[in-house]
């Protein structure tokens, strides 16, 4: 696993760690079951505070990218589809809410596209 943290980057260090691990897990560069370094170990190797890495790990676990198995360590989660299931559930809830509000499909899609552009910085 190779991570590069830039202090000049617009994203905070924890977000850089989260994004890079997530991308490597999605691409298969980090295979399912791969054991990640400890929070303290990764923090030392990156020159970050342990709380910074812990925050990234918590976000990755909430996203279903990694799973912590107590004292056994932290691993790339087998259920990469957990994030997809959560996304599908959120999309379904959004679609139902937009319909209840009386929005057209085009208006709902436009709102979703605008939100995605804002979130992804496009």
Commentary on this structure:
With 122 residues, the protein is mainly α. The chain is 59% helix and 7% strand. It contains five helices and three strands. It has helices at residues 13-27, 39-46, 50-62, 81-100, 105-120; strands at residues 35-36, 66-68, 74-76. It has a three-stranded antiparallel beta sheet. The chain is elongated and about 50 Å long. The two termini are 28 Å apart.
Summarize this entry quickly.
It contains 5 helices and 3 strands, in the order αβααββαα.
Descriptive labels:
122 residues; mainly alpha; 5 helices; elongated
**For the largest beta sheet, what order do the strands appear in spatially?**
1-3-2
User: Mind summarizing the main beta sheet?
Assistant: 3 strands, antiparallel
Quaternary organization = single chain
User: Which bin fits the share of residues in helices?
Assistant: 55-70%
| C-alpha-based Rg, rounded | 17 Å
Order of SSEs? HEHHEEHH
How confident overall, as mean pLDDT?
Answer: 90
Gross geometry: elongated
Question: What is the end-to-end distance?
Answer: 28 Å
Number of helices: 5
Identify low-pLDDT runs: none
Overall strand count: 3
Q: Per DSSP, what share of the residues sits in E-state strands of 2 or more residues?
A: 5-15%
Which structural class is indicated by helix and strand composition? mainly alpha
